[in-house]
Amino acid sequence: xxxxxxxxxxxxxxxxxxxxxxxxxxxxxxxxxxxxxxxxxxxxxxxxxxxxxxxxxxxxxxxxxxxxxxxxxxxxxxxxxxxxxxxxxxxxxxxxxxxxxxxxxxxxxxxxxxxxxxxxxxxxxxxxxxxxxxxxxxxxxxxxxxxxxxxxxxxxxxxxxxxxxxxxxxxxxxxxxxxxxxxxxxxxxxxxxxxxxxxxxxxxxxxxxxxxxxxxxxxxxxxxxxxxxxxxxxxxxxxxxxxxxxxxxxxxxxxxxxxxxxxxxxxxxxxxxxxxxxxxxxxxxxxxxxxxxxxxxxxxxxxxxxxxxxxxxxxxxxxxxxxxxxxxxxxxxxxxxxxxxxxxxxxxxxxxxxxxxxxxxxxxxxxxxxxxxxxxxxxxxxxxxxxxxxxxxxxxxxxxxxxxxxxxxxxxxxxxxxxxxxxxxxxxxxxxxxxxxxxxxxxxxxxxxxxxxxxxxxxxxxxxxxxxxxxxxxxxxxxxxxxxxxxxxxxxxxxxxxxxxxxxxxxxxxxxxxxxxxxxxxxxxxxxxxxxxxxxxxxxxxxxxxxxxxxxxxxxxxxxxxxxxxxxxxxxxxxxxxxxxxxxxxxxxxxxxxxxxx
Length: 598
Description:
Layout: H1 16-27, H2 36-56, E1 65-69, H3 70-82, E2 88-93, H4 97-104, H5 118-124, H6 128-140, E3 143-146, H7 149-158, E4 165-166, H8 173-176, H9 182-200, E5 212-218, H10 228-244, E6 250-256, E7 261-264, H11 266-298, H12 311-323, E8 335-337, H13 344-352, E9 362-367, H14 382-388, E10 391-393, H15 403-410, E11 415-418, H16 422-430, E12 439-442, H17 449-465, H18 468-479, H19 487-502, H20 554-564, E13 581-584, E14 590-596
Parallel strand pairs: 1-2, 2-3, 3-4, 5-6, 5-10, 6-9, 10-11, 11-12
Antiparallel strand pairs: 7-8, 13-14
Helix pairs in contact: 1-2, 2-3, 3-6, 9-11, 9-14, 10-13, 10-17, 11-12
């Protein structure tokens, strides 16, 4: 619960030209008048530096540590250094500006990092002034950090400074924690998604919902960067494999990406209305049937089943069935798109031919709007929706960290990520066999697009072949990785370096800098392979296809994990010797005067 100071940049907009001139005189960075976002960044930067300067002039100035995030806030950092304020500075880039633009342009980004002419590339995309603000902040900061190893390599080549430390993004795990209830929450949310499916596919509901798997991809609508292109291609190949192997599994893939729309699709709304009408009809017939059954039992007679339903009941049910007749295919998009013919997802779906036909074992639903509990179509919050799905698929080409697979992990939902995402690299580094814990890592760095697509298809097909029991066990393992992503532990590394950078202007007592950090790797679960078929604690019912002789004690496996898994970082100790800390200067050299000795 931090204190917050809000700065109104519009209130001082009259100073914009004067501050732009000062920016040019001191840093040789010119900001064009038409870039409103960059103009706001200039105003915010000067106001931030003014605020920190006022705080530093207090009679008893506090120890000031300013942590700036992204290029929009970076100018304030550069001004603090230019004005020589007694402020220790940290700059964190969560994704380089130029890297995001280059990847969106379909270039072979990671194999050509060292060859880019960064000034020319930024100029060609008319973001040179923004790039200069970002690079200046990175170069001027006492400590430069980023969120993943893959982004550190990117920043070293594009911003011309190697990050001093990596600070992975964590989550407030307590917010998502459901303890032993997360399996029940999955079942409840899955039932709500199934209700939506019943309405969306009315008239074509020729598949078994109990053998239906829900996959999803969510995030900003960046078709290539987020991997929606490779996901769609893999779904087409998965559809072929399921049909050739005569699988009884049906896959429903959700695309939750906001796009330009003008309203809900009428056919989609009609589907939910038809479903509700069928439900009301069934409830009415059930009440009348129950009343007749009750009256028959009251007089001590067994009911005549042939007389329990009269002509009115049959007429009512026939009308309801007639209302479910549908001449067209179930819609793919739940909304009316403003640019339907040019939309990347819809264009790709037309090419691969996934039109939700009865013969397809893979169905696609494109929901071009963020989820909300007030929606008339799918009244669920994002967290509820994720809990109800079986697998999150995030085959991103450019993903500096990746909160979506991390959120899946803390909610016990398996996910597919890539070795080009910060989350994927982090999991590969700390888990001996990620796939055993429901974290599938797709290789998009050292393989071509077609090879990566085949690998993703293989992951999806293997997941479809898992039994219900195996999926339950896998979700248990996934949820046990929650502590790995907890800010309580990941924040320790940042706290350590924050204390170190403060020594620039305020010498600290070395005993306050006692931290211990050590790497770790999760072991491979003893039950893999093969996946066990029975878990008495996860579900009381055993399917007919499972055998009793291959029993699996989930408590015993959890205890093994607790003994073998170590936290990423131990919390600071108040006692014991402090670790040496040497502060790198803004030019990347070691600043001996800023070091804290044992």
